[in-house]
Amino acid sequence: MELQNDLLIRAAKGEKTERTPVWLMRQAGRILPEYRAVRNKLSGFIELAQTPELAAEVTIQPVDILGVDAAIIFSDILVIPEAMGLPYEMIEKKGPNFPSVISSEEDVRKLKVADAESDLGYVLEAIKITKKELNGRVPLIGFAGAPWTIFCYMVEGHGSKTFSKARRMLYNNPVLADELMQMITDSTIAYLKAQIAAGANIVQVFDSWAGILSPEHYTKYSMKYISQICDAIDEVPVTVFAKGAFFARSEMRHVNCETIGLDWNMDIAESRRLIGEGKTLQGNLDPCTLYASNKEVENATKKMLDQFGTHRHIANLGHGVYPDTDPEKVKVFINTVKEYSAQMRSAAV
Question: One of 35, 153, 225, 340 is an active-site residue; which one?
């Protein structure tokens, strides 16, 4: 199906665009009353993610309500460990929790490499429904968690400031750590390929806990597996977002992906110099900027666009939009990107 709005795909590939495309991480969710109305009918997040028709509905909401240039499928990075045999629960106001964790070779033996079609068919069905409903209006983004981030949850069991149990395994049992991360990687490659076959136009790998590793460990235990994923996905453009991995930006220029996501702590000019001209950059407005006045949001957005320039940029926040953000402030951000970036290109002609 031909896309009516292909700005995101063209920007990812480094092609010229009439303006900068814009979307937000976590746009399908908590900031929208329409999302909360759907979720309140159900037992919670996991039931919503596993109900394809409703997952598709909340995926499309930001396209209709906010006017973003892409939809991102409503799901969770932790569907992979569950598909591998390690189920999780989502505790309200606390986040994910794994009743069982991985701490030994025996625990790893109980796992399997996930089969995307049989274990994650509900996500693939949601993608198919979403594609049909979007009818080519905007691209659909598929995604998965980076193996290191998934490993963190499987070993730690929940969110953490330090993920010391996960990091301890890197020192105490690196062979087991590698074995588990390779299983996660193999599961993730199959999962992303299945998302693409179902209709995803571009995919993003989220390395949410990249920043807690040392540079040496990041190369050895995260970038190694992200590179495997990027090398395996050649059907659509790939974006890598490694939060906090400021030290790995030079290394990222060599990863076989089209786009690198920047968090809000990464200087734009420095990032472009370190990553090079061969990648599209995505980001990176501080999510807290959206608590400011409309004028301040507008000015900060323009400043960000000036720094990125008119080529190889996808506008986004430097992390997911926070749940108590006013949707009207999000619209100011989105509309400013659209209007100001179009003016920038017109002035450059």
Answer: 153
